[in-house]
Amino acid sequence: MTRAQLEHILRASGAITDETEIVILGSQSILGAFPTPPAALCRSVEADAYPYNAPEKTDLIDGTIGELSPFHDAHGYYAHGITPETAVLADGWQERLIPLRSPMTQGVTGLCLAPVDLAISKLAAHRAKDIDFVRVMCENGLFDTAVFHALADTLPEPYRTLLPQTFATILAGRTVTTLKEEDIP
Questions:
Q1: Is 125 within 8 Å of 132 (Cβ atoms)?
Q2: Which of 71, 98, 116, 134 might form a disulfide with 65, Cβ 3.0–4.6 angstroms?
Q3: What is the model's pTM?
């Protein structure tokens, strides 16, 4: 996904929900901090989104511009309506949201995860694709590792222990053994 495509999703999400702030939690939130991140971070055709002040309107996004919708068919990308509880995030994540607003968003502001919060949520998901995503983020120096460790300390167990261990494995260039979905709380 490109930044212009994310701006289109923000514009459409705002029009559908009549809300002016849309949170982007998934991988494409990287586009808030980095308009042209490494190509490996832009492979997804989906943006995980919910209206900041009205998360109950998430179904409007999913039903109108979600997967297999006419919007998806026409553009090749889509929004996945989610809830705030979808991601595991460190304390204070909302204060670190990065606003994405341009003439292309037509008055809608995207609130994108800060890269360090994105890395935390990806490592908490602990899927192979998410670990690879964080590996690329590390290789390109897209977040401060000291901040990562400080924020990981605010997470509940088992994430407080698991994330720093996984992160150390990534930095050492070793393969991370992913967990089965049923093993993740």
A1: no
A2: 71
A3: 0.92
Phi, psi of 16, rounded to the nearest 5 degrees:
-70, -40
Q: Which residues contact 146 (CB under 8 A, 6 or more apart)?
A: none
Q: pLDDT tens for residues 142-158?
A: 999 999 999 999 999 99
* Rounded Cα distance, 135 and 101, in Å: 28
Work out the number of other CB atoms within 10 angstroms of the CB of residue 131: 20
Given a contact cutoff of 8 angstroms between Cβ atoms, the answer to whether 98 and 28 are in contact is: no
Instruction: Sort residue 24 into left (φ over 0), alpha (ψ -120 to 50) or beta.
Output: beta
Main-chain phi, psi angles of 100, to 5 degrees: -125, 110
Q: Residue 61 is which amino acid?
A: I
Q: How far is CA 59 from the centre of its chain?
A: 18
Q: Please tell me the distance from the alpha carbon of residue 158 to that of residue 96, in angstroms, as a whole number.
A: 23
Which residues have CB under 8 Å from 178's CB, separation 6+?
126, 127, 128, 131
**Residue 51 β-bridge partners:** 22
Sign of CA dihedral 87, 75, 52, 147: positive
